[in-house]
Amino acid sequence: MTIDVGVIGVGMIGQDHIRRLTHVLSGVRVAAVTDVDLDRARTVAADLPDSPTVHDSGEDLIADPRVDAVVVTSWGPTHEGYVLAAIAAGKQVFCEKPLATTEEACSRIVDAEVATGRRLVSVGFMRRYDDQYRAMKAVVTGGEIGSALVMHAAHRNPSVPDFFTSDMIINDSTVHDIDVARWMFDDEIAAVTVLKPRVSSKARDGFHDPLLVLLEMASGVIVDVEASVNAGFGYDIRGEVVCEDGTVELSEAAGAIVKGAGRFGGRVPTDWRERFVRAFDAELQAWIDAVAAGGTTGPSAWDGYAATVACETGLRALASGVREPVTMRERPDLYKES
Amino acid sequence: MTIDVGVIGVGMIGQDHIRRLTHVLSGVRVAAVTDVDLDRARTVAADLPDSPTVHDSGEDLIADPRVDAVVVTSWGPTHEGYVLAAIAAGKQVFCEKPLATTEEACSRIVDAEVATGRRLVSVGFMRRYDDQYRAMKAVVTGGEIGSALVMHAAHRNPSVPDFFTSDMIINDSTVHDIDVARWMFDDEIAAVTVLKPRVSSKARDGFHDPLLVLLEMASGVIVDVEASVNAGFGYDIRGEVVCEDGTVELSEAAGAIVKGAGRFGGRVPTDWRERFVRAFDAELQAWIDAVAAGGTTGPSAWDGYAATVACETGLRALASGVREPVTMRERPDLYKES
Amino acid sequence: MTIDVGVIGVGMIGQDHIRRLTHVLSGVRVAAVTDVDLDRARTVAADLPDSPTVHDSGEDLIADPRVDAVVVTSWGPTHEGYVLAAIAAGKQVFCEKPLATTEEACSRIVDAEVATGRRLVSVGFMRRYDDQYRAMKAVVTGGEIGSALVMHAAHRNPSVPDFFTSDMIINDSTVHDIDVARWMFDDEIAAVTVLKPRVSSKARDGFHDPLLVLLEMASGVIVDVEASVNAGFGYDIRGEVVCEDGTVELSEAAGAIVKGAGRFGGRVPTDWRERFVRAFDAELQAWIDAVAAGGTTGPSAWDGYAATVACETGLRALASGVREPVTMRERPDLYKES
Amino acid sequence: MTIDVGVIGVGMIGQDHIRRLTHVLSGVRVAAVTDVDLDRARTVAADLPDSPTVHDSGEDLIADPRVDAVVVTSWGPTHEGYVLAAIAAGKQVFCEKPLATTEEACSRIVDAEVATGRRLVSVGFMRRYDDQYRAMKAVVTGGEIGSALVMHAAHRNPSVPDFFTSDMIINDSTVHDIDVARWMFDDEIAAVTVLKPRVSSKARDGFHDPLLVLLEMASGVIVDVEASVNAGFGYDIRGEVVCEDGTVELSEAAGAIVKGAGRFGGRVPTDWRERFVRAFDAELQAWIDAVAAGGTTGPSAWDGYAATVACETGLRALASGVREPVTMRERPDLYKES
Predict the structure, then answer these.
(1) Would you state the pLDDT for residue C194?
(2) Where are the domains of chain A?
(3) Which of A300, B177, C18, C167 is most buried by a 10 A CB count?
(4) Residue C42 — pLDDT band, cuts 50, 70, 90?
(5) Does domain A130-269+305-335 correspond to CATH entry 3.40.50.150?
(6) How far is D115 from chain C (nearest CA, A)?
(7) R_g over Cα of chain A
(8) How confident is the prediction for chain B on average, in pLDDT?
(9) Measured between alpha carbons, how far is residue B215 from residues A177, B194, B325 in Å?
(10) What is the mean pLDDT of residues A220-242?
(11) Which residues of A touch B17 (CB under 8 A)?
(12) Nearest-CA distance from D105 to chain B in Å?
């Protein structure tokens, strides 16, 4: 069985997912596309083998009976509307992070999905599909080194565009570490503190970079996240979980180790695509397989809601300079087993 | 466009490729299967989503007009016949190694393909698609550390079945290192020597394990291959190319690094599937994409011929205890660019 | 020239230094010893080749004209008195950390030394002599990866005696990281925050272990120190400095890498002696060489003072749960170049 | 007790040992020196704290009653005479490798020492005192990964002086791997083969570099040694022992790991001094301590003899191109326990 997918939003990440759905993954076809820029949508569609329909709007695409399931890769503020429309149409929807840009919007999605009585929404936190993070989680949950106490993380981007702000370090970078923390420990975040170390000379005026974000989990585990977006040397994602009887950390990326000119060493990935290409592949293949089997998989609307709440709390903590508690709604039964 | 593939031979590796073609790769469908054991073929077919035809013989499968291209994963001695039949039918064929079990058989395949004037045969040397080997080759051919002088390799299997023989260390294990050496240096093997170190107490009587196989390339580069098939601790594939200005080696497999009980460290793969799962995926996806584009890609019939000749020379060297020169036919023009 | 050293305090660390001075280092002799337990002092002396004098008190030892220089390895609260006596006697003194147990006591030592107009005091922060820390500092100060922004550190002890308290995590463990931070960045600590992650089940009741200690340097660099004293698996000291253009971290300890039973990996040191044996050797040899040359070297009384002030601030932060600023006296000119 | 040592030969290695004996090690003093160039001997002596006597000849130095023990660091061909003189004088002698330059000369030393009935000779194979090699040997002899089958080694020098020849690759570089093999497996070398890979473009005309030296131990273990002396990028010593149930290898040298400009990695040592400085320290301290205790320790005259015989066999193998068996005299009882 082949799943016919409609893609809303054909910018950088949308085109990357279309390439993946078309040339890499199994059991799926891009049947329809749309974009706020219809010319761009037509250009992208023209290159695809299965001549996808170009719809005038996301709503039209969702309504198209040939579209089995929907991928939302449009601009963040538009996610809520498309996800709600997909839920209303009873169609499975994979939404790139963020699920929505405000706690309220996420909450409305949760309400809508809960009202249908079944899971229709999957959110694109691809690190859960990364081999290294999965190996780390297997060790943590396997119990061989005892219960977790602390996690150290670093999220280093080589550079960011001019429009990037300190707030976006929380919303666009740290959000991944927020989801990792919730998933790694199967726990919620109870409070967030944001410290401002010495500012990199490469950061623009008024920009706080790096940040040191401290997440307190409900269990008491503390996760410290160093988030840098002008690291220059590469895209470097680090993580170490400290447990009672040992630690587990992400290894450096495999590859060739070169010795020359007095040094030995390996490559640091250039960007998130190089680092996480296989996680994206695995994430979407898992979703397609689940859709083909009549359901969904992966991070839920609840995970999307919780991440957005934690980010909003992080922004408050960035502004206030002090520890900010996280306040969340009750977790609906629909999300009580994962 | 979807390629309809027929698979001849549904043993362990055949079933693994069928799983891959069905559930992992893009643009392909298993349309037909057959096996020397027809009941097994029917059982395998029954589990597949697209209800493939079960043919009584490989020849019938190859002749089936709905079969666009052929995958040969049957017992080695049967490869020649199926590959020749596919060539005769003008169909692209992916043949697991070995291309054929004797120099003469490989030569007949080369003759048949050359007679058609175009490449129809691809041989399953999957290491060429492994990320680490590719990174290593990029360094070697990039010239940053000068010309290659020596290569060290190790091929360690945790264990082998009772029917395994010392000859099979050459034919089934070292054959991969033979292909890697030819590919890494874009060169032919000029001579083979096989040394017999102290025998592992885990080897059966009369079995020489490990072996130390020395490959002399035409350029003078020497490749030493430690081949062990009772290594016990894991499936461990090592490689290091020593060049004039530096070296490049395969890193240990990535994953989680655990500290506990006085040690730090990571996992050694359990078997070839774990180590090379992605190389197999990439190899077959590349082949499918090339078939869809009207051609082929990957190791050629010439590569299959050369590997078999080197293995036969290796067997002579194992028996004689001395250096044995490799004698090959002239390389046909069809294979002169790769 | 051979330096005749008197050692005050022959407990565990004192005996280790006596072994070092007697059997490992060059140009030095243990000429006198004393201890609060005179029997123990006599027993230790009896085993030494040069028949050191056993003095009834530290003051007597310091006054002994045959004693060229003094090593203080007694109980912390007694340090002040012995160091002041050595200063009064005009003798070089190497004092194990802490220099003294209170800010006031350290300040009195600083005053006494300043009054002599020359440096007579060296404090035993041996990490400054560790090859890995020195390699790290060379990179940081070399400027090849830009200015420092953040430092991550971990101090993991396998276990601690029953009398150990959370306060001692600050005073006995983190004090080393405090000194490293000051030395690494040639800067003072401006504020300390102590966070209390989930408590290890191996910690006794009422014990906060691990702690997450945040040091803010005057420059704005933030140093986070995970301090665990029930880590169980080994003695694990980690450090990574994050700079504007790259990072530098301590490598895992060298040694043999073993592959077996599905794992590859190396050894984690058992205790501080294994990890820092060479740093202790180098530290004391450097001090002996400096004494022989008529001066001193290594961490100064000011460094001892600053570490004690930071520790006291850390204790306040541990109690208060909030960020505590560090208040220090003016740095005397004597310590203005290091 | 302080050992008064006389040093014969104050070239590069002699001066390095004098620095070590004077400024690094414990319980020793350089009491006398000499050199074929007496002016050089006088210059070196003038810089030393204990005003050593400058003797006109090695024989005079050995005869000096104030000299407790002798260190021979003169030109190789002179070793035999000095070692025999020290034996005749009944003085302990530490001789840098080679013990002597011919099998016959070594044999005469063995005879002379055997005639005294006790060990007086120690040979400077410092790798036996290297922490990494010792950790490796501890694993091999500990039995945790079974019996040894194969060893891989590499000896890479960044460059060599113009007078260096291919023979010297055997005599000056590979000799260390020869001693390591004998020591690691407590076994003798039964045969040597020398292969000549493609020649580095950095080697002078007529120079075979690198070499691939194959040592067959009496037990059947094969040791392959890649010996390169124009490696350019650093001084790189590698070793891996392959056992029945696992492997053990030297780790890369510890230090700081730097990330920057798209790479992570560490330092390769610049030269043998950087790599083995501590092995030299440990070797000589162990010898001094043994001398102080009335005996000796470390590689024996028999080890020196065996290494020279293996090197001579290696030279024959380099010339003949084929496997050359090693023929040795009977091992005297004096050397039967080590």
Answers:
(1) 98
(2) 3-127+278-300, 130-269+305-335
(3) B177
(4) very high
(5) no
(6) 33
(7) 20
(8) 96
(9) 49, 9, 10
(10) 97
(11) none
(12) 32
CB-based contact B148 D198, cutoff 8 Å: yes
Question: In this model, does residue D162 exceed pLDDT 60?
Answer: yes
By C-alpha distance, the chain C residue nearest D278 is C278
Shortest distance, CA B280 to any CA of chain D (angstroms):
27
Fold annotation for D128-271+305-335: Dihydrodipicolinate Reductase; domain 2 (3.30.360)
Topology annotation, domain B3-126+278-299 = Rossmann fold (3.40.50)
Q: How many CB pairs under 8 A join B and C?
A: 48
Q: State the pLDDT at residue A255.
A: 84
- Cβ distance B201 to D148 less than 8 Å, yes or no, reads no
SS (H, E, C) chain A: CCEEEEEECCCHHHHHHHHHHHHCCCCEEEEEEECCCHHHHHHHHHCCCCCCEECCCHHHHHHCCCCCEEEECCCHHHHHHHHHHHHHHCCEEEEECCCCCCHHHHHHHHHHHHHHCCCCEEEECHHHHCHHHHHHHHHHHHCCCCCEEEEEEEEECCCCCCCCCHHHHHHHHHHHHHHHHHHHHCCCEEEEEEECCCCCCCCCCCCCCCEEEEEEECCCCEEEEEEECCCCCCCEEEEEEEECCEEEEECCCCCEEEEECCEEEEECCCCHHHHHHHHHHHHHHHHHHHHHCCCCCCCCHHHHHHHHHHHHHHHHHHHHCCCEECCCCCCCHHHCCC
* B contacts of A246 (beta carbons < 8 Å): 258-261
**Tokens describing residue A178:** 């927020």
CATH number assigned to the domain with residue range C3-126+278-300, chosen from the 4 options 1.10.10.410, 3.30.420.40, 3.40.50.970, 3.40.50.720: 3.40.50.720
Between B and D, how many residue pairs show a Cβ–Cβ distance under 8 A? 102
ipTM of the shown complex:
0.95
Per CATH, domain A3-127+278-300 is 3.30.540.10: no
Among A150, A155, A263, most C C-beta atoms within 10 A, so best to mutate, is A150
Check whether A44 has a pLDDT greater than 60. Answer: yes
pTM: 0.96
Q: Does the domain spanning C128-270+305-335 belong to CATH 3.30.360.10? A: yes
